[in-house]
């Protein structure tokens, strides 16, 4: 039996300070089975586990869970993962250090890369 | 705060040092300025190879480390995708085949399992290789790991044995008392200690300079291309025969030699490049183009597959192409564990073990005279 999809509050942690982080209570009943990174099928539970293991940045969550390593290179899940990290570490979203952006901006066929610059 | 040993650097070398020191009952505190594996260990492939090691100290280190990895794979707390998939060496031109035959002979003599392959045999093992190649060799005992997971695994195991592992803790200085170590000063406080391990990769030179110790490492930049997940393109770790030439060269200019590595997740990693251009990790599209062109030459099917990411890392390169492992002859208690160039992941465990043995006064697993920093500190070999 599948659960009904749950809505994820957007920008909930925006202005919370460390001592009054209410978003944790709001978000704590989210299902841990919810898929956050759909390219790599990484669940909320796996991301929480990575944070429990010591991940405090998006890069560390990526390396430990593969969230953000898939075809879309975190275009879809970046904000969702950042929200989870923000709520778990009681940081405002704006203070979450972004993961490194690297080329290519979107998938490129290797054959196209190989012939780049040829006329 | 105090510790028996402070390890500076949280890449593969640092965490392996912390692991073996903790295992030996030493109170070890590792400090890393970024997250674990934020240096070369987070921008590399997971090579556990014998085929590319010159006989002598490098092959000895390689064989010892490979044996350690084999048992650690099932002992350490985080799975790091260890797989003994084997390497396949590919020779492009028939004039170069004699080199491969000689390599196989040498390696067999050294006890490394391997076989020369003619073109038909080569393409039986790797059917997607181009048809106009010459032949090669297979090294079935070569293995692969996922490097970041290996780093996290060693770090967690070290912590379970009592090590303190502190990322996001930059070191701002090393305090001396006379000619001995007294403490490590970090942005989060002072750690009193008599022993420091400098495992900071391309930054080892800078860290050594704080206390007047010469550590001759240069950053040798490499690029990697990551493809979308695919299956059945390449089965073993494939490398072109000319790879060792680029490793052993003293040339600072760009050299590209094909390395193709499939992974458990299906992504293929393409490499390799080597150049010395300073501490610069920006991706150079021209280098990427050359890596991709050459990889397609060996595996034509790659042309239709998509690249999804590229990155660059900096290998710590020494003048004699051998790592620096041991106590400085200039400052007592200052151990150096760096200079692994492209063998950091491979030599992580043996380096950690040697450092632990040296610090605790045990006999070293491998004769270590050729690894000691003294060879650069007495001015005879720069």
Residue stretches of chain B low in confidence (pLDDT < 50, at least 5 long) are: none
Class by SSE composition of chain A = mainly alpha
Structural class of chain B: alpha/beta
Number of strands of chain A: 3
Which spans of chain A have pLDDT < 50 for at least 5 consecutive residues?
A: 1-23
Oligomer: heterodimer
Q: Using only CA atoms, what is the Rg of chain A?
A: 17 Å
Q: What portion of residues of chain B is helical?
A: 25-40%
Strand order of the largest sheet of chain B: 5-6-4-14-15-16-13-17
* H-E order of chain A: HEEHHHEH
The global form of chain B is globular
Largest sheet of chain B: 8 strands, mixed
How far do the termini of chain B sit from each other?
A: 38 Å
Helical segment count of chain B? 10
Per DSSP, what share of the residues of chain B sits in E-state strands of 2 or more residues?
Answer: 25-35%
Largest interface: A-B, 27 and 36 residues
Estimate what percentage of residues of chain A fall within beta strands: 5-15%
Span of the ends, CA to CA of chain A: 56 Å
The number of helical segments of chain A is 5
How would a textbook summarize the main sheet of chain A?
Answer: 2 strands, antiparallel
Supply the key terms.
heterodimer, A: 119 residues, mainly alpha, two-stranded antiparallel sheet, elongated, B: 382 residues, alpha/beta
């Amino acid at each position: 039996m599948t659960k009904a999809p749950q809505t994820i509050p957007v920008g909930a942690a925006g202005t919370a300070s460390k001592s009054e982080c209410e978003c944790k209570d709001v978000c704590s009943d989210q299902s841990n089975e919810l898929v956050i990174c759909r390219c790599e099928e990484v669940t909320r539970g796996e991301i929480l586990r990575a944070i429990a293991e010591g991940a405090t940045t998006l890069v560390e969550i990526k390396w430990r869970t593969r969230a953000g390593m898939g075809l879309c290179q975190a275009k879809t899940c970046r904000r969702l993962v950042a929200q989870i990290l923000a709520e778990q570490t009681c940081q405002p979203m704006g203070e979450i250090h972004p993961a490194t952006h690297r080329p290519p901006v979107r998938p490129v066929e290797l054959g196209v890369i190989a012939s780049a610059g040829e006329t | 705060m105090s510790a028996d040993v402070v390890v500076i650097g949280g890449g593969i070398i640092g965490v392996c040092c912390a692991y073996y020191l903790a295992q030996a009952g030493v109170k070890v505190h590792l400090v890393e300025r970024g997250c674990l594996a934020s240096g070369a260990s987070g921008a590399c492939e997971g090579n556990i190879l014998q085929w590319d090691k010159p006989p002598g100290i490098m092959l000895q280190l390689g064989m010892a480390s490979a044996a350690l990895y084999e048992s650690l794979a099932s002992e350490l707390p985080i799975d790091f995708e260890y797989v003994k998939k084997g390497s396949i060496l590919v020779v492009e031109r028939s004039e170069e085949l004699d080199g491969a035959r000689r390599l196989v002979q040498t390696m067999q003599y050294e006890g490394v399992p391997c076989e020369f392959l003619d073109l038909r045999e080569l393409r039986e093992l790797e059917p997607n290789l181009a048809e106009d190649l010459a032949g090669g060799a297979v090294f079935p005992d070569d293995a692969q790991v996922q490097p970041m997971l290996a780093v996290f695994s060693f770090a967690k195991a070290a912590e379970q044995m009592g090590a303190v592992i502190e990322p996001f803790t930059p070191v701002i200085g090393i305090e001396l008392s006379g000619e001995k170590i007294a403490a490590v000063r970090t942005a989060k406080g002072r750690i009193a200690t008599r022993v420091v391990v400098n495992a900071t990769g391309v930054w080892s030179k800078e860290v050594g300079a704080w206390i007047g110790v010469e550590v001759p490492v240069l950053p040798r930049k490499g690029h990697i291309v990551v493809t979308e997940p695919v299956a059945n393109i390449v089965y073993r770790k494939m490398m072109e025969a000319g790879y060792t030439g680029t490793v052993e060269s003293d040339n600072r200019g760009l050299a590209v030699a094909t390395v193709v590595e499939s992974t458990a997740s299906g992504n293929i990693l393409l490499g390799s490049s080597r150049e010395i251009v300073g501490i610069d990790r920006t991706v150079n599209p021209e280098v990427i183009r050359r890596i991709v062109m050459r990889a397609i030459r060996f595996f034509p099917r790659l042309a239709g597959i998509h690249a999804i990411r590229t990155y660059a890392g900096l290998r710590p390169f020494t003048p004699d192409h051998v790592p620096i492992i041991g106590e400085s002859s200039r400052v007592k208690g200052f151990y150096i564990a760096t200079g692994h160039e492209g063998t950091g992941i491979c030599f992580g465990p043996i380096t950690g073990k040697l450092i632990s043995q040296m610090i605790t006064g045990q006999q070293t697993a491998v004769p270590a005279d050729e690894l000691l920093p003294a060879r650069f500190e007495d001015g005879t070999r720069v």
